[in-house]
Amino acid sequence: MQKILNYINGTYCEPKSNEWLDNYNPSEGEIYSTIANSNEKDVEDAYMAAKKAFPAWSNTTIETRSKLLIKIADLIEANLDRLAEAEAKDNGKPFSLAKAVDIPRASANFRFFGNAITQFASESHESIGLNTMNYTLRQPIGVVGCISPWNLPLYLFTWKIAPAIAAGNCVVAKPSEVTPMTAYLLGKILTEAGLPPGVLNIVHGSGASAGQPIVAHQDIKAISFTGGTATGADIARTAAPMFKKLSLELGGKNPNLIFADCDYEKMLAVTVKSSFANQGQICLCGSRIFVEQSIYEQFKKDFIAKVSKLKVGNPFDEATNVGALVSKPHLEKVQSYIKIAEEEGGEILFGGKIVNVEGCENGYYLEPTIIEVNDDKCRVNQEEIFGPVVTIMPFNTEAEAIEMANGVKYGLSATLWTTNLNRTMRLSKKLEAGIVWVNTWLNRDLRTPFGGVKDSGVGREGGFEALKFFTEPKNVCISYTEVQNKS
Ligand SMILES: NC(=O)C1=CN([C@@H]2O[C@H](COP(=O)(O)OP(=O)(O)OC[C@H]3O[C@@H](n4cnc5c(N)ncnc54)[C@H](O)[C@@H]3O)[C@@H](O)[C@H]2O)C=CC1
Ligand SMILES: O=C(O)/C=C/C=C(\O)C(=O)O
Q: Per the database record, which ranges form the Aldehyde dehydrogenase domain (predicted)?
């Protein structure tokens, strides 16, 4: 059985403990490889390799760093099919999605930050009249930790490590133990691109065994994390008293506000995607749909009709729109919410049942599920389900819509469907979210700040925000003597 090894100091290696975890193919429900379950000794090796590489890497010219990142981007692109296949097998997502979105975005992350670093400039402040000049040095932090989740495995892994190394840091990175395969394959690409050993070290394993030692490491000075809110809180409890820099991208329970004056057909098509793309396992999915009363019944009918056409199936079947959920425990968690919805008086308008996919009888398939709720404070409307489940509910006024939209502990993204510009401006200001999409969804320009408010996290990724996070600003203040003109 294939072994997923650590990648430390430019070399694949086994974990010191010789402990291994099972890696499942969720579309078949079978173990198909085995994952290094690293511990603090492996993290220490990775840290030492990173520390050793740091002086040279942080002094490598921007041009050289940029070229290396772009080479990695090219190699990811050249391996598109192989990586997309590995991602679909490891995660359960449709191969077509991995090929069209996940892997191209992983390549784009390296290309974007390879270019962005050449444009990253620091500020200067002249104190006029005081003969003083201040300028800001933006220096890499040193060794940083990047920890990523299973829903968009290579996409989110590279979203963190690309800006970290572009800015001159060396990295100890841990992908999710649920979907480690493409991060493992990335090691070969890094070597082929010529990334110096130690610049990027990848340790695999569970959060407790391999993740926690990264967070708790005395000399890993910054942690960039994407994952569940409870894990984010755990990480903050360890890292905050150590005064580490923290970027936490956490969960969401995002509202989708649909007004009667929207472009109805566009809204309907995009709402199907924002509900069920990647089996609803994207922190940005619009899992709470609020519809203006005057079009509510029509929307219900049309939405159900469209969702009923989605094909749940084998990720490698070209016709598949909805693949397998990532794991059995996750499937069980999502199912438990469907039960809760029924207990709370919600009505399952569509879906809710396990799907038996021919040839993949042990896979983790669930129908896309639409639940009509009558109380926005019910658990299925408040807690992150992170699966192919959305709730729908009508609203009467703008004030009621905004109150329900903001009435959760999360604040990651919100989607607004309206053609009224005044309403757009008013509501965009009022929505408690890090990202507001108007008449679109998951429309990404990598230069924009990305992150959430409230329990959806702290800090921003993307563009110069990420490069700022991965550098430490230092103000240099110079007092000078003006030469008098004697003529
Ligand atoms: N992007 C998002 O918003 C995501 C949200 N979730 C939510 O979180 C729930 C739990 O999913 P999990 O797979 O358990 O995600 P998680 O938050 O536990 O895992 C994310 C990453 O953190 C690592 N990790 C876990 N505990 C850690 C610790 N104490 N210290 C350092 N690293 C640690 C994991 O190994 C993984 O690499 C999901 O059901 C979903 O609701 C999960 C994944 C992504
Ligand atoms: O950066 C993006 O385009 C998407 C990010 C998505 C997540 O962080 C997530 O689903 O966890």
A: 14-476
Which structural domains are found in the chain, ordered by start?
2-250+456-475 (3.40.605.10), 255-438 (3.40.309.10)
- The ipTM (two decimal places) reads 0.96
pTM over 0.95: yes
The per-residue pLDDT string of the chain (487 residues; one tens digit each, 9 = 90 and over) reads 999 999 999 999 999 999 999 999 999 999 999 999 999 999 999 999 999 999 999 999 999 999 999 999 999 999 999 999 999 999 999 999 999 999 999 999 999 999 999 999 999 999 999 999 999 999 999 999 999 999 999 999 999 999 999 999 999 999 999 999 999 999 999 999 999 999 999 999 999 999 999 999 999 999 999 999 999 999 999 999 999 999 999 999 999 999 999 999 999 999 999 999 999 999 999 999 999 999 999 999 999 999 999 999 999 999 999 999 999 999 999 999 999 999 999 999 999 999 999 999 999 999 999 999 999 999 999 999 999 999 999 999 999 999 999 999 999 999 999 999 999 999 999 999 999 999 999 999 999 999 999 999 999 999 999 999 999 999 999 999 988 776 6
**What span, in angstroms and rounded, lies between the C-alpha atoms of 175 and 162?**
14
Ligand 1 pocket mutation, candidates 212, 231, 408, criterion most atoms within 8 A of CB: 231
The single residue of 249, 367, 432, 465 carrying the catalytic annotation is: 249
- How large is the C-alpha radius of gyration of the chain? 24
Residue 461 Cβ contacting ligand 2 at under 6 Å? no
Q: How far apart are CA 283 and CA 403, in angstroms?
A: 21
249 is catalytic: yes
Task: Name the region of 278 (left: φ>0; alpha: ψ -120 to 50; beta: rest).
Answer: left
In angstroms, what is the span from residue 22 Cα to ligand 2's centroid?
26
Query: CA geometry: angle at 122 spanning 118 and 127, to 5°?
Result: 155
* The ligand 2 atom nearest the CA atom of 105: 3
Output the CA 298–ligand 2 centroid distance in Å.
31
